[in-house]
């Protein structure tokens, strides 16, 4: 059974979302910046702790350093560039001013639950900003690549204790119009009441999805073949992730994920 989607401006903005990696060399005006930042502040926040922040990068030298970390030169060309961070530093300062001993074991803003929730809040704020940007005719790309070198990113951003980088977001007027990437069938991602116990049944549509992804990448990369989705998953399942381990960096920022 095929359902007809309901369309409006918001739904269509989200359905047409695609990553933009080429921007026109045009600055983003102050009113647009204020709008995007205010929209981000209206995203959901766990227990209203407001435990995220975003650093707007305007220094060209710093942009270039971030591009080098991300191994993506287009980062340096983004007219508007943010690094979103989870931020319990501000809340720790507030609590300290209220007489809380932030060095005691009673201090819990640095625990695993708060770390996870603050990270979620930062992602929600980024997504709100991204959606607003698309609705205004801008293009964006989310930058997980900035986490290639967390230690250097923390140093460049001068991130204090109880903060941690989450994602970057590059925004600008699009200078490309890539095709929309295919999505897997809903039956592979949406389940009812419980996680399915039959993997074979869940993966039944995988072959068709592999084919659509392969065709999508063939159109984008005519000079070289790109693996099907399932082959990409298999490759990443054994990829060396030692350089992306978070433990030591998280601990250095004052968080205790063991509690």
TrEMBL record:
Domain of life: Bacteria
Pfam families assigned to the protein according to its UniProt record, in alphabetical order: Nitroreductase
Protein's UniProt keywords contain Flavoprotein: yes
Membrane-spanning ranges: none
Gene Ontology molecular function: oxidoreductase activity
Nitroreductase domain ranges (all copies): 15-173
InterPro entries referenced in this protein's UniProt entry, alphabetically: Flavin_OxRdtase_Frp, Nitroreductase, Nitroreductase-like
PANTHER family: OXYGEN-INSENSITIVE NADPH NITROREDUCTASE (PTHR43425)
Protein name stated in the entry: NADPH-dependent oxidoreductase
Species annotation: Bifidobacterium hapali
